[in-house]
Amino acid sequence: xxxxxxxxxxxxxxxxxxxxxxxxxxxxxxxxxxxxxxxxxxxxxxxxxxxxxxxxxxxxxxxxxxxxxxxxxxxxxxxxxxxxxxxxxxxxxxxxxxxxxxxxxxxxxxxxxxxxxxxxxxxxxxxxxxxxxxxxxxxxxxxxxxxxxxxxxxxxxxxxxxxxxxxxxxxxxxxxxxxxxxxxxxxxxxxxxxxxxxxxxxxxxxxxxxxxxxxxxxxxxxxxxxxxxxxxxxxxxxxxxxxxxxxxxxxxxxxxxxxxxxxxxxxxxxxxxxxxxxxxxxxxxxxxxxxxxxxxxxxxxxxxxxxxxxxxxxxxxxxxxxxxxxxxxxxxxxxxxxxx
Length: 340
Fold this sequence. Notes:
Layout: H1 3-11, H2 43-54, E1 56-57, E2 72-74, E3 77-79, E4 83-85, H3 91-94, H4 101-114, E5 119-121, H5 127-139, E6 144-148, H6 153-166, E7 171-174, H7 181-184, H8 195-205, E8 209-214, H9 217-225, E9 230-233, H10 247-257, E10 264-267, H11 274-282, E11 287-290, H12 292-324, E12 337-338
Parallel strand pairs: 4-11, 5-6, 6-7, 7-8, 8-9, 9-10, 10-11
Antiparallel strand pairs: 1-12, 2-3
Cofactor: FMN
Keywords: Flavoprotein, FMN, Oxidoreductase
Catalytic activity: (S)-lactate + O2 = pyruvate + H2O2
């Protein structure tokens, strides 16, 4: 099963909000929420995709050819490739009832672990979303990253207890979810976190902690101050606020600000191919996250669909590395891309 076949199958069952587009660029689902689209008109999601396409590759095949190694080591674990499946919660609400959060996470977490990468799992108002995610992670020896939303502190403590039971190798918090409408009406309130609040959460996690939703140097430095082990340069897929810059636009300055700090830098938002993964690494990211195409993969082919997408992205990355003279991730550098 190849990914084109996966897309065809997904169109039959993914619901009426996502169109399982051959290129997931945010245009067909703009202003669709619930669904894969955005709270506003969706211009940030579209910009995320477009800005990666403006970056070009500097091909150089005058080098000694050898086998390409795409493997990545992160937080004491080794992965086949430097990309991860992104967190998605409440799939029945956003897509269709072919899957619920239990069955979706069972497929995604297992398929990613068996094919050499890891999934970030989602969270939601329904406590069952995190329960299902952490149960799937435990069943796969902790090889995934549960992503907790910026709830009030009591709710966070409940979620962290589930994370610890799962033995996940790392945990994330998507602070960029603070703009989601369903968080604003909570009592006690959920949403933005001060540096002091974030520090307390990091210390309570008891494992490598990743802050997802960093879009400025100031935010990156706050995450570092709070003790985060990693960040994700992310605007929540362009779903929570229009008129944001693309992640590709802010990545270089954040990389520069955290140079030598030891904080791992991941990036998401509009990354759709192995060539896009290469661009992000050349610009200084340690790894990337890809979310929506993995939903298509699960709906279109289950575990086989996830494998097809992982193989597609890995193959594209290998080819790009080979054509640029980089035969390991450490050999990828800024000279291999042309950034506008």
